[in-house]
Automatic annotation (TrEMBL):
<keyword id="KW-0812">Transmembrane</keyword>
<feature type="transmembrane region" description="Helical">
    <location>
        <begin position="93"/>
        <end position="109"/>
    </location>
</feature>
<protein>
    <submittedName>
        <fullName>Uncharacterized protein</fullName>
    </submittedName>
</protein>
<keyword id="KW-1133">Transmembrane helix</keyword>
<keyword id="KW-0472">Membrane</keyword>
<feature type="transmembrane region" description="Helical">
    <location>
        <begin position="115"/>
        <end position="134"/>
    </location>
</feature>
Amino acid sequence: MEKSLEEIFDFKNSDQAELDLGLRQRNFNTLEERLSLCKVCLNKKVDFNKGLLCGLSLEKPAFTTFCESYEEDTKAIEKLAPGKVRASKGKRIILPIVMSLLGFIRAVIRLNEESIYGWVFFALGIAWLLSIILDKEE
């Protein structure tokens, strides 16, 4: 079974030479496979009646091996690359805050009992929250 373009464009596990080689050795037998390459090509053109077309021929792609007119669209590739797009800190921070609050509420409600689960959830939520706040990738 051939690799999908998402697997070919996995930057974490491949270098640029492997990516180019994977594309050049791949067969594009169906229109869907050809269009998957066109989606990450700078020469693509969108026609609202016909769909995705080659911007050079203004036709649906007809190649069966690698397209010699292919020009890499790095922005489109980055969108396909798994793990490259991360949620902003604002979105990632919500879940640990909720976890901390629920843990704290449970701990306060069951203050007289010997259950420590509320405090454990509270501590884990705070630790998770701190790891996001101190994350230096953004």
